[in-house]
Write a structure and sequence with these properties.
Length: about 500
């Protein structure tokens, strides 16, 4: 008997060629014998090929996926709030928690940054003690406000050592100490010791210059504006995340500039334009970089074209390659990265908001957000109007969620019958209607179909077996009844024979 043959199709990517055994094209069918052992080998080889294909893809997109997972995981955690370390009552904590106080501080930070520029242009005094009254009043006012602001925040801490756990407090503490040393301590020392610093004094003026340069560190206080403007946070994170890509483009630009610097150094040797712009390779690199990337290049192109017309297409090609191609590629990468970071930040804000609502609602209902809930408690929570409102506000279709409750509870039972808060958040986020369908979703759907089919098959087989057992028992009862009837018939026949024999005798 000929063995049955099945027609299967192997798929390979263009970058992953098939093995020596399966050296077929992408559209050519492969015929294998229906052998279980050979089928297992084919599945293993296919699995290896798929793993080999998925490896580079995961490595290529690992940065974006890692950023999204990190932001999602961080958003599910309870948000950090320095007010958790404050007293529950008192004047200092009341002021420190006030939004008016926070906005006033941000305004003073902005005004102080503007004033540093004004002081740099208009204040010629070496020391504050010898400055004019407007500068003296302004510097003391800023120093007094920032000192009082820091003392109020310090007084709001219930445990004073917790102030060192807050990064913003440590940052502001360093700036205030530097400002106090420059504005009050140095001025007091100069007055008490009657020191004189003139513009020609070397050592003393060097110290004064150091203090004046240290004043620029106050501009770093403007980093607090990042907390008030989320768009600045997105841009800064985007620049940080794209740092490697930007560095690669800068390296590529430097390589191109170096190659063309050597080229023009050789081509313009002995020409006036070479003596003017390409005296050496470093000088040529400086000329190409400044004129090709950072400044208008019309004068250089005109001079080169006047000296030698054949140099014109070469220099045009250089500027097109560096200024247009490389810069546009860099802009494209930055736009893509900033868009990715913006999406991640928006997702993180939404996840954090939903997590906060769920956590507070669970606390109100008597559950521990950091604990686990059982399957029964989960079903009970899904009947709470407040929970349903939060879930619906997250973009989840509550009717679909109710229809899939059996499958959800099955997954909970598979995980030990307990559901942590992070698992609950993942369940809510994965059920949002705005989520795009992925291969993972189709795989999960196929798995669910297999589970349902297996359960239906086992149930049908069980019912068939039960019915077969019942039919077998009924047949055995019928056989036993027929056997008993035959035995009764034989006994009656024997009785009739004995009766007839006795009558004859």
């Amino acid at each position: 008997m000929a063995m049955s043959r099945v027609r299967v199709r192997e798929f390979f990517t263009q970058t992953a060629p098939p093995t020596a055994q399966d050296s077929s094209a992408q559209t050519d069918p492969i015929v294998h014998e229906k052998d279980h052992g050979h089928k297992k080998k084919v599945r293993r080889s296919s699995r290896k090929i798929r793993n080999a294909e998925e490896g580079p893809k995961k490595a290529a997109f690992a940065g974006a996926d890692k950023l999204k997972e990190k932001a999602k995981a961080a958003s599910m955690q309870p948000p950090y709030n320095v007010a958790n370390f404050y007293y529950e009552a008192g004047m200092c904590q009341k002021i420190a928690r006030s939004q008016v106080f926070e906005n006033l501080t941000l305004f003073v930070v902005f005004v102080n940054a503007i004033w540093i520029g004004v002081d740099t242009d208009l204040n010629d005094a070496a020391l504050l003690v010898s400055a004019d009254y407007p500068f003296l009043i302004a510097e003391n006012t800023f120093c007094f406000y920032f000192t009082c602001e820091l003392l109020i925040r310090f007084g709001a801490f219930e445990k004073k050592l917790n102030c060192l756990r807050d990064a913003w407090f440590d940052f502001d503490l360093c700036l205030v100490l530097l400002m106090v040393a420059e504005t009050w301590v140095l001025t007091l020392v100069v007055i008490l010791l009657d020191l004189k610093f003139e513009s020609g004094a070397g050592g003393g003026m060097n110290i004064i210059r150091m203090f004046k340069l240290a004043k620029l560190l106050r501009l770093s206080r403007m980093a607090r504006l990042l907390r008030a403007v989320p768009e600045l946070v997105i841009i800064m994170k985007g620049l940080g995340f794209a740092a490697r890509s930007v560095s690669i483009f800068f390296l590529l630009t430097a390589i191109i500039v170096y190659l063309f610097a050597v080229l023009f150094r050789q081509l313009t040797d002995g020409m006036d334009v070479g003596a003017l712009h390409f005296q050496s390779v470093p000088h040529a690199m400086d000329t190409l970089l400044l004129n090709g990337v950072f400044a208008d290049s019309q004068r250089l192109i005109s001079e080169m074209a006047t000296e030698e017309i054949l140099l014109w297409p070469i220099i045009i090609f250089f500027f097109a390659l560096v200024s247009v191609t490389i810069m546009y590629m860099l802009v494209g990468v930055l736009v893509d990265v900033v868009g990715l970071v913006a999406t991640v930040e928006k997702e993180g804000i939404e996840v954090s908001y939903i997590a906060g609502l769920l956590r507070s609602e669970l606390q109100r209902l008597g559950y521990k957000p950091d604990g686990s809930i059982s399957q029964f408690e989960f079903q009970k929570l899904m009947l709470e109007p407040s929970i349903v409102k939060i879930v619906a506000g997250a973009g989840v279709d509550v009717i679909v969620l109710a229809d899939m409750m059996d499958l959800i509870t099955e997954d909970i039972n598979r995980n030990g019958g307990q559901l942590a808060f992070t698992d609950l958040m993942d369940l809510v986020l994965n059920m949002r209607g705005s989520n795009p369908a992925t291969v993972k979703d189709f795989k999960e759907q196929i798995r669910m179909f297999k589970v349902i089919l297996n359960e239906s098959m086992h149930e049908a087989v069980g019912q068939i077996r039960k019915q077969l057992v019942e039919v077998q028992n009924q047949m055995q009862d019928v056989n036993s009844d027929s056997d008993s009837a035959d035995e009764d018939g034989k006994i009656q026949a024997v009785g009739l024979r004995s009766e007839s024999g006795s009558e004859i005798s």
